[in-house]
Structure to design on (203 residues):
């Protein structure tokens, strides 16, 4: 269990750091119409136990695609640590909101893990990608259920800060896509491992 916790903690710190760093890009566009002073996250971001636990649970579902406890826990951890961008709000500086809630960030953080692991742990890369999708999915779910409203994300930032609106069952589609990607990559990774072991046995 200690090995699993160490694995989760190490990778979660990396994920949170990349999310924070990526979100800092939003401070370099002061003339953009999307740049605002967001405000103290404890006041404006409606942080609740349901919000935190919901993100962890949704992220853990993403990790289920690997059928491995360490990646299930990691998926939940990644999903909540995506919100490390909120730390920037304490500085009261002008920012583009939710920069890391985007497809480009999901790709970049996956590449970062690929480089760090030297391609030896493809599952951590794909769980990182899926966790971003799960986070977005839960935000949509929460907005629809709790406030009966839509929610918007700069889905293609930093290439464009135009927001894309989601509502209703959009969350379910995004969550299914995330789980499917993780499950598919994990399946082919496992098959590759088995084939490699079989080849070693034959030789």
């Amino acid at each position: 269990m200690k090995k699993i916790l160490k694995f989760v903690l190490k990778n979660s710190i990396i994920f949170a750091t990349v999310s924070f760093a990526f979100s800092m890009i939003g401070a370099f566009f002061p003339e953009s119409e999307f740049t605002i002073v967001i405000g103290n996250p404890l006041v404006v971001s409606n942080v609740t136990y349901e919000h935190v636990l919901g993100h962890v649970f949704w992220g853990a579902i993403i990790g289920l695609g690997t059928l491995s406890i360490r990646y299930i826990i990691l998926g939940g951890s990644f999903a909540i640590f995506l919100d490390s961008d909120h730390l920037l709000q304490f500085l009261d500086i002008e920012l583009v909101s939710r920069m890391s809630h985007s497809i480009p960030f999901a790709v970049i953080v996956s590449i970062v893990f690929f480089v760090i692991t030297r391609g030896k742990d493809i599952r951590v890369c794909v769980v990182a990608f899926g966790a971003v999708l799960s986070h977005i999915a839960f935000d949509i779910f929460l907005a629809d259920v709790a406030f009966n409203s839509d929610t918007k994300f700069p889905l293609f930032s930093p290439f464009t800060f135009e927001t894309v609106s989601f509502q209703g069952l959009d969350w379910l589609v995004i969550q299914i896509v995330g789980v499917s990607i993780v499950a598919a990559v994990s399946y082919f990774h496992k098959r590759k491992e088995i084939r490699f072991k079989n080849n070693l046995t034959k030789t």
The chain has a mean pLDDT of 90. The first strand starts at residue 35 and ends at 37. Residues 2-202 form one domain. The helical segments are 2-24, 41-44, 49-63, 69-81, 103-116, 122-147, 170-202.
